[in-house]
Design brief:
The protein folds into two domains: 135 residues, Periplasmic binding protein-like II (D-Maltodextrin-Binding Protein, domain 2, 3-Layer(aba) Sandwich), CATH 3.40.190.10; 124 residues, 3-Layer(aba) Sandwich (D-Maltodextrin-Binding Protein, domain 2), CATH 3.40.190.10. By secondary structure, the chain is an alpha/beta fold. It is elongated. The strands form three sheets. It has a five-stranded mixed β-sheet with strand order 2-1-3-12-4. The protein has a five-stranded mixed β-sheet with strand order 8-7-9-5-10. Strands 6-11 form a two-stranded parallel sheet. The chain is built from 13 helices and twelve strands.
């Protein structure tokens, strides 16, 4: 009897353990469901992102290429945009304004950064390929002529002296050929390559479309950082690039004042670039948008609108000059009309 009672008690104990285990398992299942529900909720709230239409997350690739001068602005924008729309994959390259147009006129990229306006022959290629490219102005730049901070003899140059230094037809090779008070040292030139809009702009407004010196004493590069590094350690070097690259390297470089004719020389700054007194080297910076991409790719549309809402801030953060706010608003109204 005792054995029977013991067995009965043991059986009852086992039943209780079974019930408790079942309850515990059921609780684990419930918490597992809550966990997966909470995880998906975190995923949707974690990608707050940006949306082309209210409540619609944007995703997919955006291809951007072009000007090395515009690159710092676009790099700033793509970096900050990644926090807004983490599902969008932005591919940003810097092959020069001409390199960007080679791709954009064939419809290979969505945005083409440029430090000059599109050329007629490039427009024609785009038309032949059924591509509509429209410019947006992002900021102002002052193309900056700079020497090393170690250079202790040049402070300003006239347009005519710039031509003596850079024109292929000029016989000037030494600094003393430009000014007899300057040292008899070889002038070393560092300049953007031929695919660069900065090269095109300098060639247009300074060299008047005449060939620039090339050869063993000239270094050409699409990468403005290469030009900066080449100039900063050589007191006999001179070169030119966008203002942001000078602003980022003020301790290593000396920017020169430029004089037109008998006018007083003017150095580039936020004020002189925006008010136009730094002439003729002040210029606008663009990105050209593939309109079909804007219409048909929500991520491109969203990024373009984000760009216009944030370009002024980005420009100032990297050392360029923002447009007046109403200019961005006017362009924003214009692009929204493309999708109608």
């Amino acid at each position: 009897m005792k054995n029977f009672k013991s067995l009965a008690l043991m059986f009852a104990f086992i039943l209780v353990l079974g019930v408790l285990a079942a309850c515990g398992g059921s609780g684990d299942d419930a918490s597992g469901d809550e966990g997966s529900g909470s995880e998906s909720s975190e995923e949707s709230s974690g990608s707050e992102g940006s949306s082309s239409e209210e409540g619609e997350e944007v995703s997919g690739p955006i291809a951007i290429d072009g000007s090395s001068t515009v690159f710092p602005i676009m790099e700033n924008l793509t970096f900050s945009y990644r926090e807004e729309a983490p599902e969008v994959e932005t591919s940003l390259n810097s092959s020069g304004s001409g390199g960007g147009f080679k791709k954009s006129t064939k419809g290979e990229i969505d945005l083409s950064n440029a430090s000059r306006e599109i050329k007629e022959e490039e427009k024609k290629i785009a038309e032949e390929n059924g591509v509509q490219l429209e410019p947006l102005t992002l900021a102002y730049d002052g193309l900056s002529v700079a020497v090393s901070a170690k250079n202790d003899f040049v402070e300003n140059l006239t347009i005519e002296q710039l031509r003596q230094i850079f024109l292929e037809s000029s016989d000037a090779q030494m600094w003393s050929d430009i000014n007899p008070d300057w040292p008899e040292e070889q002038i070393e030139i560092f300049a953007p390559g031929h695919d660069s809009g900065t090269f095109d702009y300098f060639n247009e407004v300074i060299l008047e479309e005449n060939p620039m010196k090339e050869g063993e004493n000239t270094t050409l590069s699409e990468d403005d950082n290469v030009l900066v590094r080449g100039i900063e350690n050589n007191p006999n070097a001179i070169g030119f690039f966008g203002y942001a690259y000078y602003a980022e390297n003020k301790d290593a470089l000396k920017v020169l004042g430029i004089a037109e004719g008998d006018a007083e020389p003017v150095k580039p700054s936020g004020e002189t670039i925006q008010d136009g007194s730094y002439t003729p080297l002040s210029r606008p910076l663009f990105t050209y948008v593939n309109v079909e991409a804007y219409k048909n790719k929500p991520q491109v549309r969203d990024f373009v609108e984000y760009t216009l809402n944030n370009a002024g801030k980005a420009a100032e953060e990297v050392g360029y000059v923002a447009l007046p706010e109403e200019k961005y608003e006017e362009q924003l109204d214009k692009v929204k009309g493309w999708a109608e």
